[in-house]
Structure formats: C-alpha cells, structure tokens
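Friendly challenge for the regulars: who can give me the structure tokens for this chain first? No prize, just bragging rights.
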Amino acid sequence: MSDSYRALCSDFYINQKIAVKLDLPRSRESGLELFERIRREFPGMSAFRRYKEELALESPQSEAPHRWLAVRTNSVRSGVVNPTTDDQAFGLHRRVLEVAPYFLSISPLDIDYVELLFGFDLEASGSHDRIVAEALYADSPLAGLADGSVGTATDCQPLIGLTVDESTEIEAHFEVKTRSASKRVSEQRDEPISVYLTMRQYRPVTSLDELQARFDTLALRGLEIVDERVVTSLLLPLRQAIASRSS
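First reply, four minutes later:
Bragging rights claimed.
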C-alpha cells in the first residue's frame, strides 16, 4: 500500500484521533494500564514520556514503522509512520479504538468525533509558499495574485473542506502546510512541505461496538480519496514544482 506513496514523498503517515467532550481521567493507573496493554501487543513501543499536556508512548524513531500513542485532556491520538502493509498502517489504530474507551472510561455519549489523517511530507528547498503557489495556482484565476507583478508568495497554505457523505456526516479536509521560522525567509530547508487529508465523522455514537466499523469506513474512503484526488491534484503537482526548481 504505502510503497507507492513513499515513492511520492519522504515520509508517509496515518494518524488517528478520538476526540471526547469531557476531560479524560488523569489518574496514574488509567494511563499506565492503557500503555501497558498497547505495549504488550506492540513491544517496540517502549519509550514512555510525560509532557506538559500529554502522556505518550512510542517506539524508537529508527524503527520501521515508527508508532506512537498520546493521551491528552480531551483526546486520544495514535500514529504510524512509514508503514509497508495495511496491517502496519491500521493495526495500532484499531487496537487503540478497541481498548482505550475501557481503560479511560470513555462512553458513547462522550465521543465528539473520530478522525483519521493521511499525511505526506515532501522535502523541498527554497520558498515553500512560492512552490505551492506555482504548483497549485499557476493555471487558475488565482494565479494573478501571485504572478510576481504584485509581489511574491509568502503565505500559501490552501485548505479545503468537503462533506463527502451527508448521510453518515463524514467530512474530508485537504490541507497543504508550509513551514519556516519566518515567512519572510526565502530559503526553507529544515522542514518539509506537508499534505494532509483528514477524514472526520461527527455522527453521534450509540455504542462502542460501532467504532470499528466507523474506522473501516474512514480508512477505506480515505484511501480512495488519496488515490483519486490527493495524488493527482496535490502530490504530483507539488513534486513537479519541486523538481523544476532543483533542475
């Protein structure tokens, strides 16, 4: 699955987020028991860290795929970086979706939404914003705003949200993220250009048993949109623009 995606980017990752309405328990036992349960199934996730706003469990950055799990006040998030099979890409997320509600006392009423993010990082030198403007707006009516006659692009981060299925309340959000210490700096080499597809469902949950089916729907629909839209409309134009600046 991801071998073809890795050919288009430097890193590919899938992140999940379970957003809740009430604060999650912050007791020592609840978090540690959840992390221990996940570590038994994914032994590589052995690094436990406490940050200001979250508790995190992760595998070494050098391990492929790199996996992580984080618990914040109002969300449980998990991520897999550079998976090579469907099981690697989705296995951790399915297990977190299955066990986290019980360890953290999450009820169906408490779930705000479930989200699945497909992320792609593209290494690029030079101005990220100019690259994005050239790749995505050159042949559109917006090209006149960034053709150089008025000025040069210093902030070009398109974001588009769509309702892809009104009956199930599934939304898709496309985002291109540029980075630099200062938008006035023309050379940006340390951070990549990122392309995100975020699949999100707000529909009320009536039973925890529904979560696995919802996840499968988001994953399947998300992969379809990646192949049909993200690759052709975002990744390939950006790669071509990056390559033209490097040649």
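The helical segments are 2-6, 28-41, 86-103, 128-137, 211-246. Strands lie at 11-20, 47-50, 55-58, 66-72, 75-81, 111-122, 159-165, 170-177, 193-201. Your move, everyone else.
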